[in-house]
Amino acid sequence: MPSPFYTIFCAMGFAKNGMGKTAISLEKVHKNRRPAFAFPHRLCYNLGRKFPPLGKKGLVNVMALKVGIQLYSVRDEMAKDPVEAIRQVAEIGYKNLEVANSRAAEDPGVGFDVPADKLLEILGGFGAKVVSSHISPINEETLPAIMEYHGKIGNKYIGQSADFFADYDALQRRCEYYNKMGKILSQNGMKFLYHNHYHEFQNMNGQYILYQIAENTDPDYVDFEVDTFWAMRGGADPVEVINHLGKRLRMIHQKDFSKTTDSPINIFSVKDPNVIVTRDTFGGVHKREDFCEVGTGIMPIQEILDAANAQGAEYVILEQDFTQLSQMESVKISMDSFHKYNGIEWD
Q1: How many CB atoms lie under 10 A from the CB of residue 308?
Q2: Distances (CA, A) of 3 to 8, 13, 47, 56, 347
Q3: How confident is residue 155, by pLDDT bands cut at 50, 70 and 90?
Q4: Does 25 fall in a domain?
Q5: What's the whole-number average pLDDT of the chain?
Q6: Burial (CB count within 10 angstroms: exposed 0-12, middle 13-18, buried 19+), residue 20
Q7: Handedness of CA 178, 183, 188, 190 (dihedral sign)
Q8: Which range marks the domain in which residue 2 is found?
Q9: Within its chain, how far is the Cα of 319 from the centroid?
Q10: Percent of residues, the chain, with pLDDT higher than 90
């Protein structure tokens, strides 16, 4: 039984915080680490580790995110020795892995030509598992083998890591494709995920491209992985984006925006928001110094975690696109920071 103290504070927390909806300002530095007693719903998370809530017959279950890592964060180490790189990140504490594979036509798996059974053996030795993936290309030719492989390793999320849209008609065609691939995946117990960058926060036909994708795809077939850094760099409020997508949010990507970079937070303050970003024009407006480790920058990470938990998301995935440190040192710092936040579940 949960204690009455826990029950009361959970109820107070959800009432006080509006089910996790939190307003933030992106143009000032936020205090990301706050004590458990700052807000009742955060105390609820901490007490929940000791007094887990009841199920259907009792209290509403309190959600807590699990921490994972996109292996792109350690891509240099993966290129040298993928098994050793996975061993190291698992030892740091990242047991939930998101793989990056741009070679699906040749390798339907995790990108380094390892059979599914062998991968399970390797991961089992480290206490790790694959919980999501960024895979390309995904099409009718590659999807059967992708589903077979990822079904064997127990991964149910197949992600579109990036996409571009020349105009509204092109966007509609891509949404039809997402629905089509998602329907096939759903018939095999899997889900198609869309992962954003900054350009999905350009307006197209009166609203963000990302929201157009949500509006024009079937919730039964397509869900979302919000990259909160890139949402912020597109001029959006990451918490508002999370709340807008609601229960279709399955996971978030997290990194941090540097306190010392001279780059603007909003890329569209220096790039014309009315000129649609293409694959060729995507770059040139962000640099390595913009990125830093979780908890060392200005992003309101606790508020983001609270919002994701309120919507029932499953994972917060570290994706460190760039770092000024060694990649393993970088992900270790972020893991240390994750331990300082509330609303995270540790095995």
Answers
A1: 28
A2: 9, 15, 9, 17, 22
A3: very high
A4: no
A5: 87
A6: buried
A7: positive
A8: 1-20+34-61
A9: 8
A10: 81
List the structure tokens of 209: 């491209």
- Residues in Cβ contact with 134 at an 8 Å cutoff, skipping those fewer than 6 apart: 70, 72, 98, 99, 100, 101, 159, 160, 161, 195
Work out the burial of residue 275: count CB atoms within 10 Å of its CB; fewer than 13 is exposed, 13-18 middle, 19 or more buried.
Answer: exposed
Quick one: tokens of 137? 């290309």
232 and 199 in a common domain = yes
Lowest mean pLDDT among 60-64, 179-183, 205-209, 297-301: 60-64
Q: Is residue 165 a contact partner of residue 276, using CB atoms and an 8 Å limit?
A: yes
Give the residue from 235, 231, 163 showing the smallest Cα distance to 192: 163
Q: How far is residue 323's CA from residue 4's CA, in Å, rounded to a whole number?
A: 45
Is the domain of 56 the same as that of 72?
no
Whether 55 and 121 share a structural domain: no
The distance in angstroms from the start CA to the end CA of the chain is 21
pLDDT above 80 (res 10): no
The residue type found at 58 is G
69, HSE (Cβ side, Cα atoms, 13 Å) = 30
Q: How many CA atoms lie within 13 A of 8 on its CB side?
A: 3
Tokens of 189: 């117990």
Domain of residue 266, CATH code: 3.20.20.150
Same domain, yes or no, for 57 and 95?
no
Q: How far apart are CA 45 and CA 13, in angstroms?
A: 10
